[in-house]
Write a structure and sequence with these properties.
binds iron/sulfur cluster, 2 domains, nine-stranded mixed β-sheet, two-stranded antiparallel sheet, Alpha-Beta Plaits, 25% strand, elongated, Rossmann fold, 11 helices, alpha/beta
């Protein structure tokens, strides 16, 4: 099989993205034609690891990342002139005056590492340095395939870079050459981490619910994917939701002609599977939701290997 990378994204969180990713990962793992590797690039809130835990502690590898810049204050150089405060060197309000010691103090979380204080202080009392911004974790899951995920550190301003580093990290894992399907749980939204996730993918699934906010958010997610000219398909979760908006939602889908990869009906099995930290296709394989996801998986394979 030719190696393919797919991502599952959504305009906002909580619409079933991770649940779908876990089930697709399980189906791919049980597919004799496929050797998958799974990634969680929702680096600000990674939780795929809860559903796909490690086979054992020994297989867990971690790597710290230093992609965020922060200011450091060099007290020995400071002449206590107060210019950094009085002339508002910091646009982000990350500098405050320490009256007792007559020096500026840096508010770590507020500092964006922009470097203005370093340039403006004539005594060179500020330096800009990389700080730990997160970590990349990888292991062999109990179900079999490797999982790689990034996790940002509080105060990190570089989630997108962590996504890119996580993708590079995965490429260097033993066995990556043999993996022919990379399944990525992407972040919600349309920001930098999403852009870093979809860059270089062969196919994107955008998952949404048939509600006014669901439609609004899926349009934004599709906008991002179209910028990269990546083929995509929509998965509609809770597709049978009793809502007066259904008609408007379906009209939009019909008029745009966007590919609908599948519709997952409302099914309590999904919530039950999540509470047991299991992909629904394993927890309740005969459920309506699992049947729908199995159809999505077959269609996905056809899309990525036969049509793209
Ligand atoms: S850090 Fe620089 S600008 Fe601020 S008080 Fe010290 S010498 Fe003055
Ligand atoms: S690096 Fe930028 S954000 Fe950080 S303290 Fe200096 S001026 Fe403020």
């Amino acid at each position: 099989m030719q190696k393919k990378q797919i991502g599952i994204i959504s305009g906002k969180g909580g619409v079933g993205k991770t649940s779908l990713t876990a089930s697709l990962a399980s189906l791919a793992n049980n597919d004799p034609e496929i050797s998958p590797i799974i990634m969680d690039c929702d680096v600000d809130a990674p939780n795929l690891a809860l559903i796909l835990p490690a086979e054992n502690e020994k297989s867990i590898r971690t790597k710290d990342t230093y992609t965020t810049l922060k200011a450091t204050f060099l007290e020995e150089k400071c002449i206590h002139c107060r210019n950094c405060i009085e002339e508002n060197y910091c646009e982000f309000n990350a500098l405050e005056w320490d009256q007792n010691n007559k020096i500026p103090k840096i508010k770590y979380l507020a500092c964006e590492g922009c470097g203005a204080c370093q340039v403006l202080c004539l005594e060179h009392a500020f330096e800009i340095n990389p700080v730990k911004s997160g970590e990349i974790i990888s292991y062999k899951t109990k179900k079999g395939p490797n999982l790689v995920y990034g996790k940002t550190q509080l105060g990190s301003t570089t989630s997108g870079k962590l996504v890119s580093e996580s993708k590079e990290f995965a490429k260097n894992l033993e066995g990556f050459e043999e993996n022919d399907l990379i399944i990525i749980d992407g972040p919600p939204g349309i920001g930098c981490p999403v852009i870093a996730t979809v860059s270089g993918l062969d196919y994107v699934i955008t998952i949404c619910e048939p509600t006014p906010s669901g439609l609004h958010d899926v349009i934004r997610a599709i906008d991002v994917v179209q910028q990269f000219k990546i083929p995509f398909g929509i998965v509609i979760n809770k597709s049978d939701l009793k809502s007066s908006f259904q008609e408007e939602f379906n009209t939009f889908i019909d008029e745009t002609g966007y590919e609908v990869l599948g519709r997952i009906p409302f099914d309590l099995s999904i919530a039950q599977a999540m509470s047991h930290a299991e992909p629904v296709v394993d927890y309740a394989p005969e459920s309506k939701a699992s049947q729908a996801i199995q159809e999505i998986y077959i269609k996905l394979k056809d899309q990525i290997w036969n049509h793209n």
